[in-house]
Amino acid sequence: MKLEEYEKMFHAEDEHWWFVSKRKFVGAFLSGMLPLSSKVLDVGCGTGAMSVFLKQYGNVTSMDFLSLALSFCKQRNLSQICQGNALELPFRDESFDLVTACDVLYHQWITEDSLALREFHRILKPRGKVLITDSAFSFLSGKHDQFVLARERYTINQMQTRLEQAGFRICKKSYAFFFTFPLVLMIRYLERFRNKEQTDVNNQASFINPLLIKLVTVEARLLKYIRFPWGSSILFLAEKQ
Ligand SMILES: C[S@@+](CC[C@H](N)C(=O)[O-])C[C@H]1O[C@@H](n2cnc3c(N)ncnc32)[C@H](O)[C@@H]1O
After folding, report:
1. Which of 2, 6, 78, 119 has the lowest tally of Cβ within 10 angstroms?
2. In terms of pTM, does the model score above 0.70?
3. Does ligand 1 come within 6 angstroms of the Cβ of 200?
4. What domains can you pick out in the chain, each with its CATH number?
5. CA 228 to chain centre
């Protein structure tokens, strides 16, 4: 991501509906799926709010490529912080129960996502899990993607193929941000007619935030039982075979 985006993310991610939703969706997929006190690696942890959320599942190590991101993690009192590259993880084989990569694989600094997935597979214990969230559908690509240095947006089928080729069995998969999908489509369409100078993180009137959080809370509950046929993100939980 461009450097100025890290500070924006740090200030937005506790309250902004999109970040709150992502944590709710991750919680819906992980519920009841992990051993007690798991060893968790949060790859591409960014400014740390997801790592803080993941602490409920066990002992979390937060890793990012960029020291700037990790300096924000320190402000969140995350103690196990490490700088590293998802393409060459600085960890021993079979050392984690869960690896999370939330909106990381799409990034331009991940030059080969299949290599990152093989690295996740290597450091997971037998039957360890990987949780992936990422952006969906190339037709939703917009200025936001340029600001956050996106390389690719995925379909469920593309990510499933890559996970299986890396040696994973799919446990759960879905599109996410289903109910807000029409809004995102409309925003992307309108963007064509104006010169946008910032990411989507800034584009939000404060009165709408609690409404959107209510909407995604319903979606997160439903995600435990159903798979959504479209949405602006993909969500996967897969197991090492
Ligand atoms: C969009 S942010 C997501 C942050 C966090 N995972 C979240 O869900 O809020 C993507 C993060 O991936 C990190 N990243 C990108 N390429 C990476 C790589 N090759 N190795 C490690 N981290 C990487 C970026 O520095 C950035 O912090």
Report:
1. 2
2. yes
3. no
4. 3-240 (3.40.50.150)
5. 17
